[in-house]
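Proteins fold reproducibly. Next comes an illustrative record:
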Amino acid sequence: MTRNAATLRTATDPRLRITIVLTWVLVLEHLYALVTPPYQLGVEHAFHLSFGIAYAWLALRLPAGRPWHRNLLTILLAVQFVGRFFVFAAIPDTWIRISLIPGALVTLVLVTLLWVARRPPVPASTGSR
């Protein structure tokens, strides 16, 4: 497998590295949700399994720099963010409600990293005045 120069430059971008790490954090969050109560199989387990797999796949694909990866990740993050409100309303367990907060913050940071425009590099001065 070969990589072109643009991919190599993108892979060294610190914002991209943080985005990838935070995406893996969400994968771990979904794995954690799969092994915590309730233990019966249901919609919530299908959600966590499918989203965990999707986040893992996207974390591996993000260095390619394809715009649709960013779009798909944003859609998944939006669905999950809205879903956190439903979980908060449906489950009165304090521990689960508290655990929703860091995940929501990770989601907001990820969306910001994905969509806030980067500042162009400042040109070096060409001489003294």
The chain has one domain: 11-115. Residues 4-9 have pLDDT under 50 and may be disordered.
